[in-house]
Amino acid sequence: MSDAPNLSDDDERGCHYALLIIDMINGFDFPDGERLRHQAGPVAERIAGLAARARAAEVPVIYVNDNFGRWRSDFRHVIQHVCQHTAGAAIAERLAPGERDYFVLKPRHSGFLGTSLEVLLAHLRVRSLIVTGITGDLCVLFTAMDAYMRGFELRIPADCVASVDEANNRRALDLLRESMRVDTSPAPEIELRRDS
């Protein structure tokens, strides 16, 4: 008998919503990386709390992360590299994935472009997404736009999103609210519960 988790449980339960954590496993070793890391620190704490609540409620937690151009790596290797060799180690350790979390590596800004995210969400029967992470004016925004075009309901807690520039972050959130009617209320207002 195998000790591997029974992934068919997902098929039986059917999850109606999921939490996406975008690009928070990050070395911040790029121009403006230090500025973004400064903004991402407090956000990481709030995302970690939201992820813990999601896991307790059996809501899927999905890490959607940049592959940083490392086409031969997997997500565990990305985590190991970030934790051992970069300025993003503390954030990565705080947001370390749980045993039953999912992960999708993305090559570009949107979590949907060239990835298995859409297939995974269909497998989990997800209809609504809670989107968090960095950067609000690029990867979070583009992923949200692609999700919206695919018919997903969206919630993007403003206190769980950061960008290099705070003004750009606010503009991106304003766009999401005004153009796509996205709820950007803070994370503590999100009710997480098990689906029946």
From TrEMBL:
The keyword Hydrolase applies. Keywords: Hydrolase. CDD domains: cysteine_hydrolases. Residues 18-179 form the Isochorismatase-like domain. Coiled coil: none annotated. Transmembrane segments: none annotated. InterPro entries: Isochorismatase-like_dom, Isochorismatase-like_hydrls, Isochorismatase-like_sf. Gene3D superfamilies: Isochorismatase-like. GO terms for molecular function: hydrolase activity. PANTHER family: ISOCHORISMATASE-LIKE DOMAIN-CONTAINING PROTEIN, PEROXYUREIDOACRYLATE/UREIDOACRYLATE AMIDOHYDROLASE-RELATED. This is Cysteine hydrolase. It comes from Nannocystis bainbridge.
